[in-house]
UniProtKB/TrEMBL annotation:
E.C. code: 6.2.1.3
Gene Ontology MF term list: ATP binding; long-chain fatty acid-CoA ligase activity
Name of the molecule in the record: long-chain-fatty-acid--CoA ligase
Listed transmembrane segments: none
Catalytic activity: a long-chain fatty acid + ATP + CoA = a long-chain fatty acyl-CoA + AMP + diphosphate
Keyword Ligase on entry: yes
One GO term describing the cellular component: membrane
Length: 463
């Protein structure tokens, strides 16, 4: 009914008038506004031209193996807000270009209903943000999506010689079906924050996540990963016709990424100052992202310029790799934030994996089942965050310290060791203001906002 109503909007528009409007459009004119994610400040309106959108869509399609009707029509799911450029490119413009069938998820998709849509639609390509992949992983670990339990039953059955080993593809197909991804041939990931832990977890289920790097200012994707050009933990290679440079490199070829190509936007709406700051006179976009390009051309992003810590000795430290190592070494940790600007040593704030409200996302005091299982495995009786904070659980304290010591013992951390740490009483969340809309910690988030929660100092845990 609503579709018929939509079609009536064009009844009074003549073909001549439509042709006149189409003929008046120029490739370099603004086609739409897309808003930045707000991870480096208030969201800005980015002007994207007709050429930006059509060229970028075509460039991505030269790399990613989408299929075309009538033989193999793509079936896609749209769930991201359409004010975001990744939603526009991957959920509107590419589907229009290839003649895909698009299904729109419920408004509360990001609060848990997305999995129901996936099970109903069974998309052939799925483009997830890191928050979605993390939520899937959490549900699989907890068993609300029957994947881990199924694999465990297969392993136990075979170990007891009750059956012959099943073909791997049959086992994985069952898991994929429980996720609604059994027809999916591309598992794309857009946006920052896709951790090594998440990639490893899905890889164990034969789901290879393909990270895509880009910004709103470059019409979404700048580099893509796909089967023929893939390297684990990288962001793939630049799309055809675009270029990137690493500038201001001071250590191990790590520097700021500059981007160039027809996908670069027209700038920010009504903000000439910010536009000139982001785009230099030669047409290069200064991204503010730090990373490297390896000798094969694969892009590796390690953080933002604003995140770099400068110690009292003047050393520049990139905290994200250290934070990721902490989460790998200490599985009960959800977030780790390194602090230490103008300090003689590093400190770290830790939050634990805990249950959250399904309605608001507000973190609860109760640990997740995964975290509780970890505690039990290590003879700890803790079930709540408050059982562990303020050094109340010596077993977990020792595990945290051991994980930190393992990092401190690495040669590259000889001059900047983590000497203080603290477990916060509450996990970070969007509703609490510590996380951005898609679960990442905004780089402009002020340390002063956390100071009341941790006190004026961090305790040194006895060695």
């Amino acid at each position: 009914e609503w579709w018929e109503e939509f079609l009536t909007l064009g009844v009074n528009i003549s073909d001549e008038m439509l042709d006149k409007v189409i003929d008046s459009q120029k490739p370099n004119q603004c086609c739409m506004l897309a808003y930045t994610m707000g991870t480096t400040g208030p969201p800005k309106a980015v002007m994207l031209s007709h050429d930006n959108i059509t060229w970028t869509s075509a460039a991505v399609l030269q790399s990613l193996p989408y299929t075309y009707p009538p033989e193999n029509q793509e079936v896609l799911v749209s769930y991201l807000p359409l004010c975001l450029i990744n939603a526009q490119i991957f959920e509107i413009w590419i589907p229009v270009t290839i003649g895909a069938s698009i299904f729109f998820a419920e408004p509360n998709a990001m609060k848990g209903s997305l999995i129901n849509t996936l099970l109903e639609v069974r998309p052939t390509t799925f483009c997830g943000v890191p928050e979605v992949w993390e939520e899937m992983m959490r549900r699989m670990i907890q068993g609300s999506i029957h994947c881990a339990s199924y694999l465990l039953s297969i392993i136990l059955s075979y170990s007891m010689n009750l059956s012959s080993p099943p073909a791997p593809h049959l086992v994985y197909h069952k898991v994929h079906r429980n996720l609604g991804l059994d027809r999916c041939l591309q598992f794309l990931s857009v946006g920052s924050g896709l951790s090594k832990e998440i990639q490893d977890f899905f890889l164990s289920y034969d789901i290879i996540l393909m990270p895509i790097y880009g910004m709103t200012e470059c019409t979404g994707p700048h580099s893509v990963s796909y089967e023929k050009e893939f390297k684990l933990y990288s962001c793939g290679k630049a799309i055809m016709g675009s270029h990137n440079l690493v500038r201001n490199s001071e250590q191990e070829d790590i520097g700021e990424f500059y981007l160039w190509g027809r996908h670069l936007s027209m700038g920010y709406l009504n903000n000439e100052y910010k536009t000139k700051k982001a785009f230099d006179p030669k047409g290069w976009l200064h991204t503010g992202d730090m990373g490297t390009v390896d000798n094969e051309g694969f892009i590796h992003i390690i953080g933002r310029i604003e995140e770099v810590i400068i110690t009292k000795r003047g050393e520049k430290i990139f905290p994200v790799p250290i934070e990721n190592m902490l989460k790998e070494n200490i599985p009960i940790i959800h977030h780790a934030i390194i602090v230490g600007n103008q300090a003689k040593f590093l400190s770290v704030l830790l939050t634990l994996k805990c249950e959250t409200s399904s309605d608001t996302g507000e973190p609860h005091n109760t640990l997740t089942q995964e975290a509780i299982n970890f505690c039990r495995k290590n003879n700890s009786k803790s079930v709540k965050v408050t059982d562990i904070m303020n050094n109340q659980d010596p077993i977990i304290d020792a595990i945290i310290q051991k994980g930190i010591d393992a990092i401190n013992e690495q040669p590259e951390h000889e001059t900047h060791k983590i000497l203080k740490w603290k477990v916060l009483e509450k996990d970070f969340s969007i509703i609490g203001g510590e996380l951005g809309r898609w679960g990442s910690i905004p780089s402009f988030y002020e340390w002063s906002k956390l100071r009341p929660r941790v006190g004026m100092g961090l305790p040194v845990v006895p060695q």
